Amino acid sequence: MRLKIRTKIILSFFAPIIPLTVIMVIISGYLLNNLNNEAQRLDDISKQRIKVTDLRLSLDRGLMPINDYIITGNKKYTDDFNAIYSEVEDRLKTVEDIAKTPQEMEILKDVKNSWQNIREISLKIFSIPEPAGNKDAMRMMEEMDYKWGYPAIERLERWREIDLKEYKDIMEKHNMAWHQLWISMAVWIILFLVICTIYILIYSRIAARNEEAIYKSEELLKLQISRMPVGYIMWDTGFRVVSWNPAAERIFGFTSEDAKGKHPYDIIVPKEVQPHVDIIWSRLLEGDSTGHSINENLTKDGHTIVCEWTNTPLRYHNGEVIGVLSMVQDITERKKMEGRLKEHIDELERFQKVAVKREFRIKELMDELKKAKGEGTTGRHGE
Question: Is residue 149 part of a domain?
Fold first, then answer.
């Protein structure tokens, strides 16, 4: 298999990548977007659970100073409660920002109501000077703990359970999205391999036939160029030989290997002809297709010959000149023959002029002779 066929098969192997990659990018983008959204949601839920947990712990700690005050009667627990109160208030405001669903808002409402009642009851308990053994203090403490405190903590625990369930659901979707991404990638790879295999099998046969036809066409063209009776020379835009057929070798004596890459001024154009050639070459590069010329050239063995050149600029599809094609014939003998013919014609013309003059002279003499004979005859009749 020729190199060009292999190159085309390699290109055909990668050709299906574009549509498959586009599809894969779209699917992967969609799945990755879901993964990113789910990861963000998981992070939000984790932060939300932390805030709810912090509120629950603060609420639980808020009950402790009141109970300790009832047992000990120490006023320092009042300051402890006030500090915890500020903490609970701040965390209630934080939780307000994350409550989105009706269930969460209902829980928050109940917790705030419970905390308000705990605050009011605590103020009453702290106003009792001797709370130890005080029945009213014990009754209010029991109401605060079992009616408001523990139910509020249980509601916050319920909130955490809701968040945990939502976290697990999203995590399950997140894992499923990862599985879908891996599956889509595996399907893409399998489809890619299958399509490329089919494409190679089909294209290799078509390409082999096309390449063989192109190869035969190229070989036929090379054969035609090599058998041409006239010189065939292709030049690049730097005026250096690209192609040089056998007829050119016979005309100038340089082989194709000798001539390739050479400038004509270095091998076949004499110095006195170079200005004329420069003008023709400039016109050809500008796109002029009338680059006909007859001029002297040099052969490898140093002889001067006369050649007739027909030059044509080679253009790319956008009109850019990419080279020049020259057809050349050695017309030295023809020029010599034309010179000899011209000499013969000149000689004949000179002979013709002499002959015409002689004819005119003979005619003049004949006319004079006739005139003389006529005058002699008239004289005799008079006598």
Answer: yes
